[in-house]
Protein backbone atom coordinates (compact mmCIF):
# COMPACT_ATOMS: atom_id res chain seq x y z
CA UNK A 1 0.00 0.00 0.00
CA UNK A 2 0.92 3.66 -0.20
CA UNK A 3 1.83 5.03 3.24
CA UNK A 4 2.13 8.73 4.03
CA UNK A 5 3.54 9.20 7.53
CA UNK A 6 3.55 12.59 9.20
CA UNK A 7 4.83 14.47 6.15
CA UNK A 8 5.45 18.20 6.53
CA UNK A 9 6.66 20.58 3.86
CA UNK A 10 7.93 24.03 4.74
CA UNK A 11 9.03 26.81 2.41
CA UNK A 12 10.92 29.12 4.74
CA UNK A 13 8.47 30.24 7.41
CA UNK A 14 5.44 29.00 5.42
CA UNK A 15 4.12 25.48 6.08
CA UNK A 16 2.34 24.15 3.00
CA UNK A 17 1.63 20.65 4.38
CA UNK A 18 1.52 20.00 8.11
CA UNK A 19 1.86 16.49 9.57
CA UNK A 20 -0.24 14.73 6.95
CA UNK A 21 -0.74 10.98 7.32
CA UNK A 22 -2.87 8.53 5.38
CA UNK A 23 -2.74 5.07 3.83
CA UNK A 24 -4.13 3.93 0.49
CA UNK A 25 -4.88 0.20 0.23
CA UNK A 26 -3.59 -1.44 -2.94
CA UNK A 27 -6.07 -1.35 -5.82
CA UNK A 28 -8.30 1.33 -4.30
CA UNK A 29 -9.05 5.00 -5.01
CA UNK A 30 -8.21 7.60 -2.38
CA UNK A 31 -9.75 11.08 -2.54
CA UNK A 32 -7.49 13.96 -1.49
CA UNK A 33 -9.66 17.05 -1.09
CA UNK A 34 -9.26 20.65 -0.08
CA UNK A 35 -9.92 24.22 -1.12
CA UNK A 36 -7.46 26.07 -3.36
CA UNK A 37 -4.17 26.43 -1.52
CA UNK A 38 -4.92 23.60 0.93
CA UNK A 39 -1.73 21.70 0.07
CA UNK A 40 -2.93 19.10 -2.45
CA UNK A 41 -0.51 20.01 -5.24
CA UNK A 42 2.44 20.16 -2.83
CA UNK A 43 1.47 16.68 -1.58
CA UNK A 44 1.33 15.38 -5.15
CA UNK A 45 4.77 16.83 -5.88
CA UNK A 46 6.17 15.04 -2.84
CA UNK A 47 4.58 11.77 -4.00
CA UNK A 48 6.24 12.27 -7.38
CA UNK A 49 9.62 13.02 -5.84
CA UNK A 50 9.67 16.56 -7.23
CA UNK A 51 9.77 17.91 -3.67
CA UNK A 52 11.35 16.31 -0.63
CA UNK A 53 9.34 16.39 2.61
CA UNK A 54 10.82 18.55 5.33
CA UNK A 55 9.72 15.84 7.75
CA UNK A 56 8.02 12.47 7.48
CA UNK A 57 8.15 9.65 4.95
CA UNK A 58 6.38 8.37 1.83
CA UNK A 59 6.66 4.68 0.99
CA UNK A 60 5.16 2.18 -1.42
CA UNK A 61 4.98 -1.32 0.06
CA UNK A 62 7.53 -0.21 2.64
CA UNK A 63 10.03 1.15 0.11
CA UNK A 64 10.64 4.47 -1.67
CA UNK A 65 8.43 4.80 -4.75
CA UNK A 66 10.25 4.18 -8.08
CA UNK A 67 9.30 6.93 -10.55
CA UNK A 68 8.75 4.29 -13.24
CA UNK A 69 5.89 2.87 -11.14
CA UNK A 70 3.98 6.18 -10.95
CA UNK A 71 1.54 7.69 -13.44
CA UNK A 72 0.50 11.34 -13.18
CA UNK A 73 -2.32 13.29 -14.77
CA UNK A 74 -1.72 16.96 -13.83
CA UNK A 75 -4.43 19.57 -13.54
CA UNK A 76 -2.59 21.70 -16.08
CA UNK A 77 -2.29 19.50 -19.15
CA UNK A 78 1.19 19.03 -20.52
CA UNK A 79 1.12 17.34 -23.93
CA UNK A 80 2.93 18.94 -26.84
CA UNK A 81 0.23 20.21 -29.23
CA UNK A 82 2.20 19.96 -32.48
CA UNK A 83 3.65 16.47 -31.95
CA UNK A 84 1.85 13.32 -33.03
CA UNK A 85 0.03 11.31 -30.38
CA UNK A 86 1.99 8.09 -30.95
CA UNK A 87 5.41 9.79 -31.06
CA UNK A 88 5.13 11.58 -27.74
CA UNK A 89 3.23 8.92 -25.78
CA UNK A 90 5.62 6.15 -26.77
CA UNK A 91 8.55 8.42 -25.90
CA UNK A 92 7.06 9.17 -22.47
CA UNK A 93 6.55 5.44 -21.83
CA UNK A 94 10.18 4.74 -22.78
CA UNK A 95 11.29 7.33 -20.21
CA UNK A 96 9.55 5.12 -17.62
CA UNK A 97 11.58 2.05 -18.64
CA UNK A 98 8.99 0.54 -20.99
CA UNK A 99 10.21 -1.15 -24.15
CA UNK A 100 9.14 0.57 -27.38
CA UNK A 101 7.37 -2.53 -28.69
CA UNK A 102 5.34 -2.86 -25.49
CA UNK A 103 4.57 0.86 -25.46
CA UNK A 104 3.18 0.69 -29.01
CA UNK A 105 0.91 -2.21 -28.12
CA UNK A 106 -0.26 -0.55 -24.91
CA UNK A 107 -1.07 2.63 -26.85
CA UNK A 108 -3.12 0.72 -29.41
CA UNK A 109 -4.98 -1.11 -26.64
CA UNK A 110 -5.95 2.15 -24.94
CA UNK A 111 -6.90 3.92 -28.17
CA UNK A 112 -9.16 1.00 -29.02
CA UNK A 113 -10.60 1.04 -25.52
CA UNK A 114 -11.67 4.67 -25.97
CA UNK A 115 -12.73 3.92 -29.57
CA UNK A 116 -10.35 6.52 -30.99
CA UNK A 117 -7.72 4.48 -32.95
CA UNK A 118 -7.87 7.07 -35.75
CA UNK A 119 -6.06 9.60 -33.51
CA UNK A 120 -2.85 7.57 -33.26
CA UNK A 121 -0.92 9.61 -35.82
CA UNK A 122 -2.70 12.93 -35.40
CA UNK A 123 -1.24 15.97 -33.68
CA UNK A 124 -2.71 16.73 -30.25
CA UNK A 125 -3.83 20.20 -31.36
CA UNK A 126 -6.11 18.58 -33.96
CA UNK A 127 -8.19 16.87 -31.26
CA UNK A 128 -11.15 18.16 -29.26
CA UNK A 129 -10.64 19.00 -25.60
CA UNK A 130 -12.37 15.81 -24.50
CA UNK A 131 -10.19 13.64 -26.72
CA UNK A 132 -7.06 15.51 -25.64
CA UNK A 133 -8.01 14.61 -22.07
CA UNK A 134 -8.30 10.94 -23.02
CA UNK A 135 -4.86 11.07 -24.64
CA UNK A 136 -3.48 12.78 -21.54
CA UNK A 137 -4.88 9.98 -19.38
CA UNK A 138 -3.41 7.36 -21.71
CA UNK A 139 -0.01 9.05 -21.35
CA UNK A 140 -0.29 8.60 -17.57
CA UNK A 141 -1.21 4.90 -17.70
CA UNK A 142 0.55 3.65 -20.84
CA UNK A 143 3.49 2.22 -18.85
CA UNK A 144 1.12 0.30 -16.52
CA UNK A 145 1.89 2.15 -13.27
CA UNK A 146 1.21 0.67 -9.85
CA UNK A 147 0.31 4.10 -8.47
CA UNK A 148 -1.69 6.68 -10.45
CA UNK A 149 -2.17 10.30 -9.37
CA UNK A 150 -5.14 12.13 -10.92
CA UNK A 151 -5.40 15.88 -10.33
CA UNK A 152 -8.81 17.23 -11.44
CA UNK A 153 -9.15 14.59 -14.20
CA UNK A 154 -12.68 15.59 -15.21
CA UNK A 155 -12.19 19.35 -15.29
CA UNK A 156 -13.99 21.01 -18.21
CA UNK A 157 -15.33 17.79 -19.73
CA UNK A 158 -18.86 17.20 -20.95
CA UNK A 159 -20.96 14.51 -19.18
CA UNK A 160 -20.31 11.85 -21.84
CA UNK A 161 -16.53 12.19 -21.59
CA UNK A 162 -16.72 12.32 -17.79
CA UNK A 163 -18.49 8.95 -17.75
CA UNK A 164 -15.97 7.46 -20.16
CA UNK A 165 -13.07 8.52 -17.96
CA UNK A 166 -14.84 7.25 -14.84
CA UNK A 167 -15.21 3.87 -16.51
CA UNK A 168 -11.51 3.87 -17.36
CA UNK A 169 -10.62 4.71 -13.74
CA UNK A 170 -12.73 1.80 -12.50
CA UNK A 171 -11.05 -0.48 -15.05
CA UNK A 172 -7.63 0.49 -13.74
CA UNK A 173 -8.53 -0.22 -10.12
CA UNK A 174 -10.07 -3.55 -11.11
CA UNK A 175 -6.68 -4.42 -12.62
CA UNK A 176 -4.91 -3.52 -9.36
CA UNK A 177 -3.83 0.09 -9.88
CA UNK A 178 -3.84 2.25 -6.76
CA UNK A 179 -5.15 5.76 -7.39
CA UNK A 180 -4.88 9.05 -5.51
CA UNK A 181 -7.56 11.33 -6.87
CA UNK A 182 -8.26 15.03 -6.38
CA UNK A 183 -11.32 16.94 -7.53
CA UNK A 184 -13.48 19.89 -6.56
CA UNK A 185 -16.52 17.85 -7.59
CA UNK A 186 -17.54 16.14 -4.38
CA UNK A 187 -20.10 13.95 -6.17
CA UNK A 188 -17.33 12.44 -8.33
CA UNK A 189 -15.19 11.74 -5.27
CA UNK A 190 -18.11 10.24 -3.37
CA UNK A 191 -18.94 8.00 -6.31
CA UNK A 192 -15.40 6.70 -6.87
CA UNK A 193 -13.58 6.78 -3.51
CA UNK A 194 -13.90 4.66 -0.39
CA UNK A 195 -11.20 6.50 1.56
CA UNK A 196 -10.73 10.29 1.68
CA UNK A 197 -8.78 13.03 3.41
CA UNK A 198 -9.80 16.69 3.55
CA UNK A 199 -6.99 19.22 3.90
CA UNK A 200 -7.33 22.73 5.23
CA UNK A 201 -4.27 25.02 5.25
CA UNK A 202 -2.06 21.96 4.92
CA UNK A 203 -3.55 20.03 7.84
CA UNK A 204 -5.87 17.02 7.59
CA UNK A 205 -9.22 17.89 9.18
CA UNK A 206 -10.98 14.67 8.10
CA UNK A 207 -9.41 11.37 7.06
CA UNK A 208 -10.53 7.77 6.83
CA UNK A 209 -13.08 5.37 5.41
CA UNK A 210 -15.88 7.45 3.93
CA UNK A 211 -18.86 5.47 5.32
CA UNK A 212 -17.31 5.68 8.80
CA UNK A 213 -16.76 9.42 8.39
CA UNK A 214 -20.40 9.93 7.45
CA UNK A 215 -21.67 7.74 10.27
CA UNK A 216 -19.56 9.64 12.78
CA UNK A 217 -21.31 12.94 12.09
CA UNK A 218 -24.69 11.85 13.40
CA UNK A 219 -26.38 14.63 11.47
CA UNK A 220 -28.65 13.69 8.64
CA UNK A 221 -30.38 15.27 5.64
CA UNK A 222 -34.09 15.09 4.90
CA UNK A 223 -35.58 15.59 1.43
CA UNK A 224 -39.16 16.73 1.94
CA UNK A 225 -42.14 17.70 -0.17
CA UNK A 226 -45.04 19.04 1.88
CA UNK A 227 -47.65 21.78 2.01
CA UNK A 228 -46.41 22.91 5.46
CA UNK A 229 -45.53 26.64 5.55
CA UNK A 230 -41.80 27.56 5.58
CA UNK A 231 -42.25 29.37 8.90
CA UNK A 232 -42.72 25.94 10.48
CA UNK A 233 -39.00 25.19 10.27
CA UNK A 234 -38.15 28.02 12.68
CA UNK A 235 -40.51 26.62 15.30
CA UNK A 236 -39.24 23.02 15.35
CA UNK A 237 -36.16 21.82 17.28
CA UNK A 238 -33.26 19.98 15.69
CA UNK A 239 -33.42 21.65 12.27
CA UNK A 240 -30.02 23.14 11.47
CA UNK A 241 -30.35 24.29 7.87
CA UNK A 242 -33.05 24.55 5.21
CA UNK A 243 -32.74 24.86 1.43
CA UNK A 244 -35.91 25.18 -0.63
CA UNK A 245 -36.70 25.19 -4.33
CA UNK A 246 -39.71 24.64 -6.54
CA UNK A 247 -39.78 20.89 -5.91
CA UNK A 248 -39.48 20.80 -2.13
CA UNK A 249 -37.10 21.27 0.80
CA UNK A 250 -33.71 19.89 1.81
CA UNK A 251 -33.27 20.03 5.58
CA UNK A 252 -30.13 19.32 7.57
CA UNK A 253 -31.14 18.00 11.00
CA UNK A 254 -29.05 17.14 14.01
CA UNK A 255 -30.01 13.43 14.20
CA UNK A 256 -32.25 10.71 12.80
CA UNK A 257 -34.41 11.15 15.92
CA UNK A 258 -34.96 14.80 14.93
CA UNK A 259 -36.01 13.65 11.46
CA UNK A 260 -38.51 11.17 12.98
CA UNK A 261 -39.88 13.91 15.24
CA UNK A 262 -40.32 16.21 12.25
CA UNK A 263 -42.32 13.58 10.36
CA UNK A 264 -44.57 12.88 13.36
CA UNK A 265 -45.24 16.60 13.77
CA UNK A 266 -46.21 17.06 10.11
CA UNK A 267 -48.62 14.11 10.24
CA UNK A 268 -50.11 15.10 13.59
CA UNK A 269 -50.76 18.65 12.40
CA UNK A 270 -52.48 17.38 9.28
CA UNK A 271 -49.99 18.60 6.66
CA UNK A 272 -49.72 16.68 3.41
CA UNK A 273 -46.38 14.85 3.02
CA UNK A 274 -45.69 13.75 -0.56
CA UNK A 275 -42.03 12.85 -0.03
CA UNK A 276 -39.94 12.22 3.06
CA UNK A 277 -36.46 10.75 2.51
CA UNK A 278 -33.63 10.84 5.02
CA UNK A 279 -29.97 10.07 4.43
CA UNK A 280 -26.54 10.74 5.90
CA UNK A 281 -24.77 13.97 5.04
CA UNK A 282 -23.12 14.05 1.64
CA UNK A 283 -19.39 14.51 1.25
CA UNK A 284 -20.10 18.06 0.07
CA UNK A 285 -21.99 18.77 3.31
CA UNK A 286 -19.03 17.48 5.32
CA UNK A 287 -16.53 19.44 3.23
CA UNK A 288 -18.46 22.70 3.69
CA UNK A 289 -18.83 22.08 7.41
CA UNK A 290 -15.14 21.31 7.97
CA UNK A 291 -13.58 23.77 5.55
CA UNK A 292 -16.25 26.43 5.05
CA UNK A 293 -16.56 27.31 8.72
CA UNK A 294 -12.89 28.28 8.74
CA UNK A 295 -13.66 31.01 6.21
CA UNK A 296 -16.50 32.57 8.17
CA UNK A 297 -15.82 36.24 9.08
UniProtKB/TrEMBL annotation:
Residues 2-226 form the ABC transporter domain. Keywords: ATP-binding, Nucleotide-binding, Transport. It comes from the Bacteria. InterPro entries: AAA+_ATPase, ABC_transporter-like_ATP-bd, ABC_transporter-like_CS, ABC_transporter_ATP-binding, DrrA1/2-like_C, P-loop_NTPase. GO terms for molecular function: ATP binding. Pfam families: ABC_tran, DrrA1-3_C. PROSITE patterns: ABC_TRANSPORTER_1 (PS00211), ABC_TRANSPORTER_2 (PS50893). Belongs to the ABC transporter superfamily. This is ABC transporter ATP-binding protein. It comes from Exiguobacterium antarcticum.
